[in-house]
Amino acid sequence: MRSIWNGAISFGLVSIPIKLVNATENHSIHFRQIHLADGGRIRYRKVCELDEEEVQGGEIGKAYEDADGTMIPITDEDLAQLPLPTAKTIEIVAFVPADQIDPLQMDAAYYLSANGVPAAKPYTLLREALKRSNKVAVAKYALRGRERLGMLRVVDDVIAMHGLLWPDEIRAPEGVAPDGDVTVRDAELDLADALMDTLGEVDMDSLHDDYREAVEELIAAKASGETVRPAESGDAGGGKVIDLIAALENSVQAAKKSRGEEGAGAEGEGEMADVHPIKKTSGKSSPQPTKKSTAAAKKSTAASRKSTPKSTGAKKSTSTTKKSTAKKTATKKQTSSSSGSGSGTKKTASRKRTSA
């Protein structure tokens, strides 16, 4: 691993040459900004506000901005001349129990590596002294232009240093706690304890970043042209008023079930419904249809379907009868008309004979 700082640990009159190495690494996936119209990458350029020209890194220095906006230039030489005893030294100032260090102060972590063969002996001496005392060392050191606070402890066979925030950099938790007096019952505490016991411990090495894996799968799918299906959003239950006792009980049962323990059936949610057979009623109820009655019903339906064409034939016969009746009526009218016209002719002839 590449060292980021070289110096020495000051342990009383003992000096231990060391190299500072980063103990952690960032696995976050980083994205670039692009122009949505054409996909071109967006870059930031350092431009001077006075002449509006782009400035290279070698032309950029430091300055402190005063309250009135005045820029006061500060050079690296100015900082190097400051009386800073920890400029190249990790100066141990005290040894304290580890529980006296507030975890809120924890910052970056580093490994301290012995620099050279002569440093091996004093390095091992300090490491073993820390192990036997069950304490941690509080130290001051300078890194990246400022003095910092650190805590030295043993990790396996290596001395590790955690950067600490200064006590005045920790904000007081004012206005963060819930407003008003909240009473917690003993039954609720008992269930909370049961849930804690059921969850138990975890192998820290088994924990991993699920979100980062999902992002990597998303990138791989889009790179290969596959269709990305949206993930199902789970109901976080935020803002809902819940029954705390029921929630704790269900949580305990779910934790037991996930660990394969017996008696883990969650009450309410996830239970199998009881199946009860339907009881037979008394003889007053309508009997169930039998196979014979069903067959008889089918035959009756078929017979009614066969009788349908006959009724159609009857309709045709009725129509024919109506037509013949109409013809007879027309014949009678014609006969009556012809007989009437003949009698009229005879009366006219007799009148002519009389007048003659």
Please list the strands of the largest sheet in the order they lie side by side: 1-2-6-9-8-7-5
Low-confidence stretches: 265-295, 306-356
Strand content: 15-25%
Please work out how many helical segments DSSP would assign.
Answer: 6
Supply Rg. 51 Å
Structural class: alpha+beta
What's the story with the biggest beta sheet?
Answer: 7 strands, mixed, barrel
> How many beta-strand runs?
9
Helix fraction, binned, reads 25-40%
Which whole number gives the mean pLDDT? Answer: 76
Shape: extended
Order of helices and strands: EEEEHEEHEEEHHHH
Distance between the termini: 161 Å
List the helices and strands and how they pair.
Blueprint: E1 3-11, E2 14-22, E3 62-65, E4 71-74, H1 76-80, E5 89-97, E6 106-114, H2 120-133, E7 135-143, E8 146-155, E9 158-164, H3 186-199, H4 210-223, H5 244-258, H6 291-355
Parallel strand pairs: 1-5
Antiparallel strand pairs: 1-2, 2-6, 3-4, 5-7, 6-9, 7-8, 8-9
Helix pairs in contact: 3-5
Description:
The protein has about 350 residues and is α+β, with helices and mostly antiparallel strands. Helix content is about 35%, strand content about 20%. It has a 7-stranded mixed barrel with strand order 1-2-6-9-8-7-5. The chain has a two-stranded antiparallel sheet with strand order 3-4. A hairpin with a 2-residue loop joins strand 7 (about 135-145) and strand 8 (about 145-155). Helix 3 (about 185-200) packs parallel to helix 5. The longest helix is centred in the C-terminal third of the chain and has 65 residues, at about 290-355. It is extended, with a radius of gyration of 51 Å. It starts with a strand and ends with a helix.
